[in-house]
Structures are given as C-alpha cells and as structure tokens.
Fold this protein.
Amino acid sequence: MNNQEKKPVKILFVCLGNICRSPAAEGVFLEILRENQALERYTVDSAGTGGYHIGELPDSRMRVHARQRGLELVHHCRQVTTEDFEDFDLIIGMDSMNLTNLRRKAPSVEAARKIHGMAEFFSPGARYDHVPDPYYEGAEGFELVLDLLQDACLNLYNSLESEKRN
Ligand code: 4NP
C-alpha cells in the first residue's frame, strides 16, 4: 500500500487558550504539508484545554508575527473534547500544564497514549523543554514560540514520514 492509499494521520495541537501556541502550530504544520504536497496525508487541528476564547480567531499579535513568516492563521478557537481522543491519532500539548490537563481528560489508558509533548520533537540541544506561553510576553515571546514550533513541526513531520515508509 503506498502513502496515498493510507488513512490520513490526524494530529491535534493543544495549548491553554487555543489562540496563541496551538493555532500557530497548526499553521506551521499545514505550511510544511503544503510545501511537501502532503496535505491529503494528514488532518490537522488545534484546541485549548481552557474555554475562555471560544469562537475567536488567534490573538492578533500571534497573527501578525505568523504573517511575517508567510503564515495566515485562520483557526477559530475551540476547547478539547472527549471525542478528540477518539478522532485524533496524536494529541500534542505545548507545556506540562497542558499535558496534565490532557491526561486528566483522557477517557482511557489507550487514549492517554496519544498524548505527547511538543518538546519531544525539539532538535537536540534546544534551550527549552516546552513551548512557553507568550500571552503576557512581548514580541520576543511570540517570535520564540514560532522558532520553537517551526523546528518541532519539521522534526515531527520528518519522523511521521519516515515511520510511514517503514
Ligand atoms: P495559548 O496562550 O495557550 O498559547 O493560546 C494563552 C492565551 C490566552 C490565555 C492564556 C494563554 N488566557 O488566559 O486568556
């Protein structure tokens, strides 16, 4: 069976508010898929563990910084649901609080196995062990998030593609 015939890999990126880090991760990963003509092989979405901003577009600061890198973030904020643990193959949290909240929400041990930290995909030698919340930070916080996500999403993509080939 070649890659085209396989079911898409479904990835859900998760942060607290779903207006900064996880919609940016979704946008970065989608751009990698576009560049590699791989859109049909993946389903990508994002959600928040909190429900403070449901329905909103990503934070305007995140959209400005993403746009400077050629990324348009058009996701509308939503909260993680129990069904997400059925629907997605990989559920990727940005920091330890997201991971704790996701593990609490997981409906089964099998579902909890889908949860991973974004930092698992940082390149060796990374100075961070999570994607820091930029909400109360300045421009550097948003740039840092995008730097970490562009590195991690490329490593995630390459690792999934090499798994598919094996
Ligand atoms: P995010 O950032 O988790 O990366 O979307 C935040 C956005 C909003 C809030 C916290 C973090 N908030 O408290 O409203």
Q: What stands out?
A: Strands lie at 9-15, 42-48, 90-93, 115-117.
